[in-house]
Amino acid sequence: MEFFGKKLSNVSLDEYKSRINNSLEKAGKRVVVVMDDIDRLSISEIEVVFRLIKLVANFNNTVYLLSFDDELVASALDRSYSKGGYDYLEKKLFNYLLDYLKPKYLQFVITL
Prior knowledge:
6 helices; mainly alpha
């Protein structure tokens, strides 16, 4: 285990992200990440999920399909975002994700 720990500690997060992006690109496949019932998580878990999505949503060939009650999730995000949870959902996250939802991905998601 110590061997792996040393190997992993020498690699930056940017390098990991680059490796993952390269692997996804080489695979030539699309990845759809489906998250259901996000609104059933605790407030802190909801915050973590949305932070994680924001950090990695721009992986190559990756689309996120999220299912949640917008009122509950917006309320949970209120304490983390000065302009409120709805503002975050409407302006930040969805505009960010829409930049990556190219027509070919939308067609793929719709045909599932």
